[in-house]
Amino acid sequence: MTLLESAITSPSVVNFIYYYILTVNHSALYIFQYQAQIVYLSVSGSDCDTKVASYFLWLLFL
C-alpha cells in the first residue's frame, strides 16, 4: 500500500494531512513518495503530534 492509499483509506487526521500536502505538491508526490513512506513508517507507532512534527521536519529537507 502506498502512502497515498494509506491516507485515503485511513480516517486518521495525520494521514489526511499527508494526503493533502502530497496532492497539493504534485511533484513531491511522485519524486519523494518513497522517502515519505519511510518517514511515515518510521513514525507510525508514535502519537499524532510526533507524526506531524516528523513530517514537517522531513519537508524541510526537500
Can you characterise this structure?
With 62 residues, the chain is an all-alpha fold. It has one domain (3-60). It is built from five helices and no strands. It has helices at 3-9, 13-24, 26-31, 33-43, 48-60. Helix 1 (3-9) packs across helix 2, helix 2 (13-24) runs parallel beside helix 5 (48-60) and helix 4 (33-43) packs antiparallel against helix 5 (48-60). The longest helix has 13 residues, at 48-60. The chain is globular and about 15 Å long. The mean pLDDT is 59.
Topology overview:
Layout: H1 3-9, H2 13-24, H3 26-31, H4 33-43, H5 48-60
Helix pairs in contact: 1-2, 2-5, 4-5
Keywords:
62 residues, mainly alpha
In short:
This protein has 62 residues and is mostly helical. It has five helices and no strands. The chain has one domain (3-60).
